[in-house]
Backbone:
């Protein structure tokens, strides 16, 4: 058995079924050994998308997605995908081929110091110098990626190590790392303090972040919110932690969020941040949110607590465990009658009064109405993947999550995320309906993946909201530079009907809302790839 | 606010780079950095002197703890620790200033460890402020080159 065989065996031991990647000489031993395995390989069309696809796979399956690329440009191309996953705490295992270990440092063909280059975007990285280290490294890598504050781990394997013969393969059962022991259980003293604050509070609110979903704590959050009648808002990454139409859910906060959600957060007297970073897009002035309220910050990463805002009650641990412990505490206020009735009544009033009223141009498709209509017609447990740009903000605002998932690149805001991530999601759960929604800018960043979808028969449905502009930047230039548009015109974009025909894919076009219903129905029908182009007003704004 | 971090790390290649990279990536200051093996050859100790406001000081500790190669982070104030720095300084001398230099060395408890006809190397081990003072005293003579270790520090002994 050589090193490459050992890597494949490690992946099998970890239950990996799919590897996304792109071969090159330095990773060829790996791709040779994988032929002997049941593991499915997906040839992505550019390495960045291998990481995005693995990310979509991870977020739906809960198991770290795996991508494998070659040295040099293969490795550097994958960095944006890794950074995207890192910003959203998505666990990934990224295997990169490397030149012969004796040549490392001599700038030979396709050599890049990838472990050095990704240092600030990975949870951890390895450069494997001895073939016998492979089992330990992979065992540790999967453990590190998928525990604590999750994140990508990169393993760089020189070609000679992949080719080296291994004495005996032994996959370790346990991990002993003296430097890594993430906190899971919350401190009970702190948990009791939270309960005390809840008893005192008149206007509590929970702000759910992506950490709730990463910890699979949606059920616990819902139960806690329902039992004690505590309203919930979410960050962008927290969308889907509560069903959108749940009576206790008041929408997404932040500069692109719902006005009623922001008002709810500002007027609360007890804010419980759960698995959220308190980053600039969600809370623009972190210093102010502690002014007139008690802030509880629950996060698995101690470094997140107090980074942007100093909480009154820090609580480190896994969200799922902490909710379970919170539920086990005795609370004086009755569980049956609503303790915070007035507050909820006020918030319901805001929800109604502060609903955003859009004035759509009737000559085009109204993205807001279209997205809500699409959500209503989607399967209940369907997966909606939003890209980045105006399409993302409309998706956040108008997509209705029922039992499904909402995926997007929230932290890094990487354009082109939706199509590869949707492919990964579809491969993780082929029985689910998976829809990628992008703009014409973000579509063109990943349109090469139509070939991957065709080659590997991945029936993802794609919606392109076409306005011939980089809409989000155009909107920024509209407000900030008084319509002095610079480099946002997307003229020259391909005819999507011809493009999809070239890839043997079905195509639909919607020009106004008139035929929206039947077009959406036709679009959603059947488990096959189809691209729906929606012509939207080039001058439409998200705000 | 000055703060001293005593960071125990795995003695592996690349770890120094990761720790130093963390400081630059997050715009934390490094006033001084000294690294050496501990009594356990698998463990190195990095002594880092940094400065910043309270939140920065706390973040540095938390971010260091997050690094998977970091075994333990201890932090302490200057006045609660014993700190030392070693400096080797090469100066040019002549008949006229030789005596002055030797007197300065006596006052500062520095040693002349190497000598030629017109140059000498002086070694001094003291707290960083006094090292600075010694450099100042020698500035009127011509300094050829200087090598300093950076601050080493341990928290003061406390009996329980």
Residues:
């Amino acid at each position: 058995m050589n090193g490459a065989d050992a890597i494949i065996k490690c992946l099998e031991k970890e239950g990996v079924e799919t590897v996304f990647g792109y071969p090159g000489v330095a990773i060829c031993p790996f791709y040779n050994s994988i032929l002997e395995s049941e593991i499915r390989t997906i040839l992505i069309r550019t390495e960045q998308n291998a990481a995005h696809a693995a990310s979509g796979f991870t977020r739906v399956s809960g198991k770290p997605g795996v991508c494998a690329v070659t040295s040099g440009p293969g490795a550097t191309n994958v960095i944006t995908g890794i950074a995207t996953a890192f910003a959203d705490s998505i666990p990934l295992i990224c295997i990169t081929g490397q030149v012969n270990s004796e040549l490392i440092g001599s700038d030979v063909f396709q050599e890049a110091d990838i472990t050095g280059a990704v240092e600030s975007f990975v949870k951890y990285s390895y450069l494997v110098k001895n073939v016998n280290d492979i089992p330990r490294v992979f065992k540790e890598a999967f453990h590190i990626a998928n525990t604590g504050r999750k994140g990508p781990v990169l393993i760089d394997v020189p070609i000679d190590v992949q080719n080296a013969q291994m004495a005996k393969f032994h996959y370790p059962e346990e991990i002993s790392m003296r430097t890594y022991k993430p906190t899971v259980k919350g401190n009970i003293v702190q948990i009791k303090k939270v309960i005390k604050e809840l008893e005192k509070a008149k206007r509590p609110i929970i702000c759910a972040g992506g950490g709730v979903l990463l910890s699979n704590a949606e059920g616990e959050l819902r139960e806690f919110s329902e039992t004690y009648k505590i309203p919930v808002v979410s960050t962008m990454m927290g969308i889907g932690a509560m069903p959108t139409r749940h009576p206790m859910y008041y929408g997404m906060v932040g500069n692109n969020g719902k006005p009623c959600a922001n008002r709810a957060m500002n007027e609360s007297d007890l804010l419980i941040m759960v698995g959220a970073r308190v980053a600039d897009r969600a809370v623009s002035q972190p210093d102010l949110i502690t002014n007139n309220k008690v802030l509880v910050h629950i996060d698995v990463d101690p470094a997140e607590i107090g980074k942007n805002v100093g909480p009154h009650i820090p609580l480190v641990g896994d969200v799922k465990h902490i909710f379970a412990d919170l539920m086990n505490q005795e609370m004086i206020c009755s569980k049956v009658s609503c303790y915070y009735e007035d507050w909820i009544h006020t918030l319901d009033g805001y929800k109604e009064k502060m609903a955003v009223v859009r004035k759509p141009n009737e000559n085009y498709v109204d993205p807001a109405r279209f997205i809500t209509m699409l959500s209503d017609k989607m399967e209940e447990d369907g997966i909606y993947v939003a890209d980045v740009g105006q399409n993302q903000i409309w998706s956040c605002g108008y997509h209705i999550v029922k039992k499904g998932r909402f995926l997007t690149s929230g932290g890094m805001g990487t354009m082109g995320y939706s199509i590869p991530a949707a492919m990964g999601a579809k491969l993780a759960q082929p029985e689910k309906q998976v829809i990628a929604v992008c703009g014409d800018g973000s579509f063109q960043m990943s349109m090469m993946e139509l070939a991957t979808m065709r080659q590997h028969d991945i029936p993802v449905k794609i919606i392109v909201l076409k306005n011939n502009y980089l809409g989000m930047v155009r909107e920024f230039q509209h407000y900030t530079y008084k319509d002095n548009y610079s480099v946002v015109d997307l003229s020259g974009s391909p005819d999507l009907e011809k493009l999809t025909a070239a890839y043997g894919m079905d195509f639909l076009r919607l020009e106004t809302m008139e035929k929206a219903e039947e077009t959406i129905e036709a679009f959603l029908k059947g488990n096959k790839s189809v691209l729906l182009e929606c012509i939207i007003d080039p001058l439409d704004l998200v705000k | 606010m000055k703060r001293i971090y005593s960071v125990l790390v795995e003695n592996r290649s690349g770890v120094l780079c990761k720790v130093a990279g963390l400081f630059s990536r997050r715009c934390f200051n490094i006033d001084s950095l000294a690294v050496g093996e501990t009594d356990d050859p698998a463990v190195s100790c990095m002594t880092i002197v940094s400065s910043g406001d309270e939140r920065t000081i706390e973040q540095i500790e938390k971010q260091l703890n997050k690094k998977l190669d970091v075994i333990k982070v201890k932090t302490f104030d200057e006045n609660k620790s014993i700190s030392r720095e070693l400096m080797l300084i090469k100066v040019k001398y002549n008949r006229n200033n030789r005596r002055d230099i030797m007197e300065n060395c006596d006052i500062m408890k520095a040693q002349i460890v190497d000598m030629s006809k017109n140059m000498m190397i002086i070694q001094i081990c003291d707290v960083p402020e006094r090292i600075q003072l010694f450099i100042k005293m020698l500035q009127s003579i011509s300094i050829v080159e200087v090598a300093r270790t950076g601050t080493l520090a341990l928290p003061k002994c406390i009996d329980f």
